[in-house]
């Protein structure tokens, strides 16, 4: 892999993916580290991939030009950590969910993927077994076809949303109901690796080549496809800035208008993802968005007059009362919760 590391072909091409995030396609000869330095100096960082939509856009943009460096790297000294397959679901260890009083999952085990019978156990990702998918409507589906872990993940992502992910799903009542009357082992959306994104985050999205994903993943740097001429992408979460000061919604609105272009608005899921990148570094549990409820008009409106055509409310987060504005969670699922506008939180501005 050394020749892949040190000889990189870059093709300069601007790809406008959405208004608050831009991908660039660069033509130069650089190693991964040099590419990272280039991206950080001129933009924000090497490309980060949030989900299958991003993956599809990156692959389509390559146009058979070869491989593509992205910001995923394995420079962690082999320190493997657990992740859930469903993007945005953070792994939190719970001994009671694992077999043998939590031995598995905390010590080096026999494999890097998680299967469930009565408890979770880490096993080789190559075993064929049934699996459980998750849908956006919060329904679980038992798939009675034997596949290895990556095949199961691909099936769930194509036909549903992803493999079942998160302890609220894995240990929940709906999951228990699927096991009634069945003595079975099934794949969960649980995997372990030592990969991190260039910005230091451990965001869980992966889309490995079936031949490269195995239980001996070692010192590699992530790219797309498998030729010796490689391309790298970089992204720019431009026009977004997190203000780590606690202010009321009105104070945040005035600050953004005076110092920048205004409080951030979110009109599609891609903008939501870039806002999440910034929000994760907040020092408050929520960050203000530029969305407020109008008692007079009886509706929610963005202060920059954008149409409210995308929403990500928490289950009980939408309270339509006077004096309410939207705070987005600064962690977890990054859902929206209506807050009294005199609460004080960090906030996001358009530059």
From TrEMBL:
Signal peptide extent: 1-21
Q: Which Pfam families match?
A: Lectin_C
Entry keyword Electron transport: no
Q: Which domain of life is it from?
A: Eukaryota
* Keyword Transmembrane helix carried by entry: no
* InterPro entries listed in its UniProt record: C-type_lectin-like, C-type_lectin-like/link_sf, CTDL_fold
Looking up Gene3D superfamilies in the UniProt record yields: Mannose-Binding Protein A, subunit A
Q: Where is the C-type lectin domain?
A: 18-134, 135-232, 235-350
Q: Which keywords accompany this UniProt record?
A: Signal
Report the protein name in the record.
C-type lectin domain-containing protein
């Amino acid at each position: 892999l050394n020749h892949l590391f040190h000889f990189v072909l870059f093709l300069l091409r601007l790809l406008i993916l959405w208004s608050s995030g831009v991908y660039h396609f660069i033509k130069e000869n650089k190693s991964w580290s040099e590419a990272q330095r280039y991206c950080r100096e001129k933009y924000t960082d090497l490309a980060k991939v949030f989900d299958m939509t991003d993956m599809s856009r990156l692959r389509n943009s390559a146009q058979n030009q070869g491989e593509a460096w992205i910001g995923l790297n394995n420079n962690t000294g082999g320190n493997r950590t657990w992740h859930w397959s469903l993007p945005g679901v953070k792994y939190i260890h719970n001994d009671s969910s694992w077999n043998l009083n939590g031995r598995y999952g905390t010590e080096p085990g026999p494999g890097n993927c998680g299967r469930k019978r009565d408890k979770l156990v880490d096993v080789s990702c190559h075993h064929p077994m049934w699996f459980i998918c998750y849908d956006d409507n919060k329904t679980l589906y038992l798939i009675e076809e034997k596949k290895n872990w990556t095949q199961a993940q691909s099936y769930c992502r194509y036909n549903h949303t992803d493999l079942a992910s998160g302890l609220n799903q894995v240990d929940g009542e709906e999951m228990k109901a699927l096991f009634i009357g069945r003595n079975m082992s099934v794949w969960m959306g649980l995997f372990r690796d030592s990969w991190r994104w260039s910005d230091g985050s451990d965001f869980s999205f992966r889309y490995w080549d079936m031949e490269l994903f195995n239980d001996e993943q070692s010192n590699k740097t992530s790219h797309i496809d498998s030729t010796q001429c490689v391309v790298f992408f970089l992204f720019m979460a431009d026009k977004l800035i997190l203000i780590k000061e606690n202010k009321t919604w009105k104070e945040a609105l005035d600050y953004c208008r005076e110092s920048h272009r205004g409080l951030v608005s979110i009109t599609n899921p891609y903008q939501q993802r870039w806002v999440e990148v910034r929000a994760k570094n907040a020092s408050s549990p929520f960050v203000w968005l530029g969305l407020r409820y109008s008692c007079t008009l009886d509706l929610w409106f963005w202060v920059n007059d954008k149409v409210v055509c995308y929403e990500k409310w928490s289950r009980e987060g939408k309270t339509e009362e006077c004096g309410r504005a939207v705070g987005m969670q600064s962690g977890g699922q990054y859902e929206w919760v209506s807050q009294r506008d005199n609460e004080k939180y960090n906030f996001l501005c358009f530059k």
